[in-house]
Amino acid sequence: MKQKEPDFWVLEYVTITKDPRTDLVVAIGGTEQAADILQRTGGFLSAPGPRGDYHRLPHGLPVEQQRLKATAASHALLAAGHSVHLDPALNMLVAPEGEREATLRDLAGLAERAAAATTSSEVAEVLTEVAAPVHGLLPLAREVVVRAWIAAGDFQGAAPAGEPDPIARIGSTATSMSEAARAILHARNHAARPAQRPATTSPPPSRAQPAESRRR
């Protein structure tokens, strides 16, 4: 006897993910009970969509707040018996370590590429990854240092009189990082140029001997 396939109500499943176009965290699907949990536990807002209402977090939330609210909402839904898919990038319990490992792998990969480079253009590609103005590793690290410097200045008082202020030195460190990035980019530009072959020198023309020397 052929068994009958069970009925699945797809809309009862809740998917919490981040929309790549808007960077909004959205929750799609679920029942009215799930909507209540999303709103009460995660702070999600109901919004109209082309295929019915959905839920999203408010605009302008920092990434950590997005992850915190999405994780809290997903666990509350699971505890209430709902089926949930949470984007791993939003899961505060597993994503940070995975991101750190991926970053370390990227750095190790760049070091291997630099060591295995056989042409100056390959070296230039590695240096571009390090110091590119927007997404280079060094400018991104400088951005972290600058933000930490600003935050530390809000939390820490001035250093005792006569002692150097370690927080103030972070600003000069950020400046040094910018100068280092410019120096690396200058080296990248030099390495990216095609190698110039040394100019071949033709032997000097032989001087004609005087007539008397030829007769001798």
Poorly predicted runs of 5 or more residues: none
Specify the helix fraction band. 40-55%
Mean pLDDT: 82
Order of helices and strands: EEHEEHEHHHHH
Strand order of the largest sheet: 3-4-2-1-5
Please give the radius of gyration in angstroms.
Answer: 31 Å
Shape: extended
Structural class: alpha+beta
Number of beta strands: 5
Biggest pleated sheet: 5 strands, mixed
Beta-strand proportion? 5-15%
Q: End-to-end distance, in Å? A: 122 Å
**What's the helix count?**
7
List the helices and strands and how they pair.
Layout (H helix, E strand, L loop, with lengths): L13 E5 L6 E4 L3 H11 L2 E3 L6 E3 L6 H17 L4 E3 L8 H22 L3 H12 L5 H19 L10 H27 L18 H5 L1
Parallel strand pairs: 1-5
Antiparallel strand pairs: 1-2, 2-4, 3-4
Helix pairs in contact: 1-2, 3-4, 4-6, 5-6
Keywords, please?
5 strands, 216 residues, single chain, alpha+beta
Structure commentary:
With 216 residues, the protein is α+β, with helices and mostly antiparallel strands. It is built from seven helices and five strands, in the order E-E-H-E-E-H-E-H-H-H-H-H. A five-stranded mixed sheet has the order 3-4-2-1-5, with helices on one face. Helix 4 (120-131) runs antiparallel to helix 6. The model has no long low-confidence stretch (mean pLDDT 82).
Report a brief summary of the structure.
With 216 residues, the chain is of the alpha+beta class.
